[in-house]
Design a protein that fits this description.
Double Clp-N motif; Multidrug-efflux Transporter Regulator, Chain: A, Domain 2; 2 domains; three-stranded antiparallel beta sheet; 3 strands
Length: about 240
């Protein structure tokens, strides 16, 4: 797997977990992240905090979109100065880790079992990255003010009920994949395929086979169990 210096694969925020029964809150953040990656792809840049905001804006009728709409923040406000780069695939850089971890921590502090799109906004502001913190400061909105708005938005905009289309699928593209081969799973986590095979052999990671086939398959939800939350203060500046 080829990666630039300082870049890692960030598949999902640690606390965005697939719940039992209703998958709606999980789907909300998944949609935001996929739209953020698409926005970066369009711009020919790596994924940044501003792309997260664009993802929230484009995932209409979610808790985060409600907050931004009430603050009169629109796509035109996100004027990222990240220089375009070569390469067809947008990458998720290490600077995004504090945002993801802060979003999960904000969700926990506000009593949410799952991270929602509005919590992602809190994570962005807490990290100080991108355009959003300056926009809010210009409007006199503090982090605590934003938390109040997030509480109200989540209460007013519960995620829609799960639909049959949310059942596990073997989609062919990137972040939407639910079943992985060994190489795809290793790429997803940003580790060597032999390391992942070691997890399977040791029983740390379940694996499956389609009937009549020898190729191993790994479920996304099992890969996510290998991730554990990291406190923001424990993130190495280097």
């Amino acid at each position: 797997m080829r990666q630039g210096p300082g870049f890692i694969r960030v598949p999902r925020p640690p606390r965005v977990r697939r719940p039992e029964g209703d998958l709606s809150a999980y789907r909300e953040v998944r949609d935001v992240f996929e739209r953020a990656e698409a926005a970066a792809q369009e711009a020919g840049t790596d994924v940044t905090a501003d792309h997260f905001v664009l993802g929230v804006l484009r995932a209409a009728d979610t808790s985060g979109a409600v907050v931004l709409r009430d603050l009169a923040i629109v796509e035109a406000d996100m004027r990222s100065e990240v220089a375009p780069r070569r390469g067809a695939r947008a990458r998720w850089g290490a600077p995004l880790q504090p945002i993801i971890q802060a979003a999960a921590e904000e969700a926990r502090q506000l009593g949410s079992r799952l991270t929602r799109s509005a919590h992602v906004l809190l994570g962005i502001v807490a990290s100080g990255q991108g355009t959003l913190p300056g926009l809010l400061a210009g409007r006199g909105v503090t982090l605590e003010d934003l938390r109040t708005r997030v509480r109200a938005a989540i209460a007013a905009a519960p995620a829609p009920a799960a639909s049959p289309t949310d059942a596990p699928r073997t989609a062919s593209g990137g972040l939407s994949r639910e079943l992985f081969t060994v190489d795809q799973a290793a790429d997803f986590l940003g580790i060597h395929h032999q390391t992942l095979r070691g997890y399977i052999k040791s029983g740390k990671l379940p694996a499956y086979r389609l009937a009549g086939e020898k190729i191993l398959r790994i479920k996304r939800e099992d890969l996510m169990t290998l991730l554990e939350p990291v406190a923001v203060g424990d993130v190495d500046e280097g």
